[in-house]
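Dear Dr. H.,

I hope your travels went smoothly. While you were away I took the liberty of generating a structure for the chain from your last submission, since the lab meeting agenda had it listed for discussion. I wanted you to have the full record in hand beforehand rather than looking at slides cold. The sequence, exactly as received, is reproduced here:
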Amino acid sequence: MRLVLLILIVLSVDLLAFPLAKETIKDFVEELKIYPQLDLEKIDSSLQNIKISEKIIALMSSPPEKTKTWDQYRSLLVGEKRIRQGCRFLSKNKEIFREAETRYGVPSSIIAGIIGVETYYGKIKGNHDVLTALATLAFHYPLDNPKRKKFFRYQLKEFLLMADRQGRDFNNYRGSYVGALGIPQFMPDNYRRLAVDFDKDGEIDIINSVQDAVGSIGNFLRYHGWIPNEPVMVIVPKSNHLNTNNIELNPSRPNIALSELIPDWQKIKYLQTAISDFNHDSASVALLEKSEDGSTKQWLGFENFFILFRYNPRLFYALAVASLADALNECGT
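The corresponding predicted structure, in token form, is as follows:
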């Protein structure tokens, strides 16, 4: 009953939607005068016609990474059905993934894992009006967070520039409640700067083209520092070899040398096999620890694991992508 009431509340909050203040629109349009290619009259008119979405504000106030446990989050994004769908998706598009992996050095399973987590392999791309979503968060971000409002104001500008470059009406884009777009859910600045025409049809289209989406994710990760042929995440088996003194268990970056965390890692057969082709002598890692299925589970997060934070800066998100990628590596085996 409580769940039904919560759903009804979320669905009904947009009855309280309200327009942007005219002064707010005027100031924003004034900022856009440095872009002579933009139709400022149309932008002004469109912004005056939209209604700020209380539903989007409510969704942004309670992201699943903050409200769910790891078990709950994992069950949503790394379930058996999603793994099976991912195996089919990889098989169907194996030539595309092979080409992207060769060009960018990013494993097919990682790219597929991102698409699986973001849009269920392109099936759920979001049905929010992107202009409304970005305007809502740019000018009425929850708790009036100035840093986040600035970020979404920038994304709103990038969205308008992106739509202009594509020759499309900016009133006709649908996406997530944060304004992310297409199969890989790129924010507008990433769409404009890092998306690629991977199918070579003369158009960059990550909304409809799986090939462009796959190539664009590879390009995004490589641009942000992905290291080819290096590990992402490795399960740490139970052992007495782990030095857990002063280890940060919810890190956002590598924070200790592998040789310091596990001084005699060579004695652990599983680890030796998992990182056999890797230059372990210079490796920095972080220890990740979460409760999973009633017991404590630990992983080593390498540099590439934290590159996933550039896509979404949440530990649960990176864990979900890496875990789904691990499962997809087993497709057909």
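Two observations you may find useful: The chain has 17 helices and eight strands. Confidence is low (pLDDT under 50) at residues 1-10.

With kind regards,
E. W.
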